[in-house]
Design brief:
Layout: E1 2-13, E2 17-21, E3 33-36, E4 40-42, E5 47-51, E6 57-63, E7 66-77, H1 113-124, H2 131-144, E8 146-147, H3 158-164, E9 166-167, H4 169-182, E10 187-193, E11 209-216, E12 219-223, E13 235-240, E14 249-251, E15 256-267
Parallel strand pairs: 8-9
Antiparallel strand pairs: 1-7, 1-15, 2-6, 2-14, 3-7, 4-7, 5-6, 10-11, 10-13, 11-12
Helix pairs in contact: 1-4, 2-4, 3-4
């Protein structure tokens, strides 16, 4: 299938301000892009790309004083397959984990493993290790947190989400990540596009989505505690330890959000009539 994706984001700054944004499709999916219009800023501002320590494509630019609009639009080829499910996938002992995975066992800004460790072991430690235990964590978080955009708070941590029992997709992801790490299961935070493909349309405005990837066996698997069912059409933008590493916009100075539009939906390929 073809999926159209893109955004229009406008911010204002009181003075010239450096900006780093993580808004591009992840490098691992760029070969699947069917068409992408050039990244645009209005007013036009020189920018350059680089890959950060987590493998995400970033853009770095200097925003002039006033308002600036950032836009991108493209289409990507997707298999149309739902998230992989593998009930036989096993946990990997810490001493056998690849070196590059170890960082996803540690506590981080929004994932306080030290404060939730005992809770995690009390609730899930007695379960059979592997896919079933990770799915049990996903089931719990899905049922424990009430979703609502009105509950959004940029500073909420996993512990606070656990105690407050409310939040948005990033809170679901942070709590699941933390419980997994407490049990020595590597887990990382993912930000990206997730449209209403194969499910009833959500009347709320489209947004970027957050979910979790968990390392089992010899690969990463997607778990989404907010929706808690396999979905079609995920487009990864960035991965990291938690939301700190994948902020859409990092301004080194104050800014005010003026416009925020995101789109991601299935597109029917255009079929051209044969020439006579």
């Amino acid at each position: 299938m073809l999926i159209n994706y893109g955004f229009e984001i406008a911010i204002s700054v009181p003075r010239a301000t450096p900006l780093i944004c993580l808004l591009d499709v992840h490098p691992e999916r760029r070969a699947d892009i069917n068409f992408e219009a050039p990244f645009q800023s209005e007013p036009a501002t020189q920018a350059h790309t680089f890959v950060d320590g987590f493998g995400n494509q970033c853009r770095r630019l200097m925003v002039p004083a006033g308002e600036i609009s950032l836009t991108l639009d493209g289409t990507i080829v997707d298999s149309g397959a739902p998230d992989a499910v593998n009930p036989t996938a096993q946990e990997v002992p810490v001493d056998a984990l690849p070196n590059q995975v170890l960082t996803y066992l540690l506590g981080s800004r929004y994932c306080e493993t030290d404060r939730l460790s005992q809770v995690a072991w009390d609730m899930f430690g007695g379960m059979k290790p592997g896919w079933a235990r990770v799915q049990a964590i996903c089931d719990f978080v899905h049922g424990h947190i009430t979703f609502g955009y009105q509950h959004a708070r940029a500073t909420r941590t996993a512990l606070e989400a656990f105690e407050e029992k409310k939040g948005v997709c990033r809170d679901f992801a942070h709590l699941m990540i933390t419980f997994c790490r407490c049990l020595n299961i590597p887990a990382r935070y993912v930000n990206g596009y997730l449209g209403d493909i194969g499910v009833p349309a959500d009347p709320a405005p489209m947004d970027f989505s957050a979910w979790t990837e968990v390392y089992l066996g010899d690969r990463w698997y997607t778990f989404d505690a907010r929706h808690n069912k396999p979905r079609v059409g995920r487009i990864v933008v960035a991965r990291g330890r938690d939301a700190t590493d994948v902020a859409l916009l990092n301004t080194f100075g104050p800014h005010t959000l003026k416009t925020f539009k995101v789109w991601t939906d299935e597109r029917v390929p255009t079929v051209r009539a044969a020439s006579a």
